[in-house]
């Protein structure tokens, strides 16, 4: 008799796995603090502002790099000088940062 009852419990627990999952999910969703409409709108405005500002910043950087590359290809002395200065500044920054970490 003991085997029959345990077999029924196992079969029943396997059948109810999905139902148990759904009940637990529903219980967890009830614990969530959902934002109010005003909070959601304010957070949406923040996301839009950050996205637009980052798009503008990246667009500006692409434009500046394109100008610099066009100047290097054309053999413009100013563009080549800017690249050399940036390279030197980068090396100096790396050296300073390495000394501070050591």
Helix/strand/pairing class, anyone? Answer: mainly alpha
Instruction: Give the C-alpha Rg.
Output: 31 Å
Total helical elements: 4
Q: Helix share of residues? A: over 70%
Number of strands: 0
Low-confidence stretches: none
List keywords for this structure.
102 residues, mainly alpha, 2 domains, elongated
Structural description of this entry:
This protein has 102 residues and is mostly helical. It has 2 domains: 1-32, no CATH class; 37-102. It contains 4 helices and no strands. Helix 3 (37-74) crosses helix 4 (77-101). The protein is elongated. The N and C termini lie far apart (74 Å).
Brief digest:
With 102 residues, this protein is an all-alpha fold. It is built from four helices and no strands.
